[in-house]
Amino acid sequence: MESLRKMLITVAVLGAGAGVGFALLAIVTPGEQRKQEMLKEMPLQDPRSREEMAKTQQLLVATLQEAATTQENVAWRKNWMVSEGGAGGRSP
User: Name one GO biological process term (predicted).
Assistant: First the structure.
């Protein structure tokens, strides 16, 4: 009988803990309106941020293409986004 009592108390404590956790989750979860506001505030939602990200990606791809075609280690450059040599940054 004692083990049944301990088991019921354990189940009650675990259930209460789960209930408190679920209640806290429900309290801190934003509503639908707040979710929509948060989505609008995300970085890549406005056109200017998207253009800037596209330009950055183009520069990165161009740098990687240059690095693939040259023997120079472009990672050692002070400004590795700019080519240093006359012939595509190639070392003599």
Answer: mitochondrial respiratory chain complex III assembly
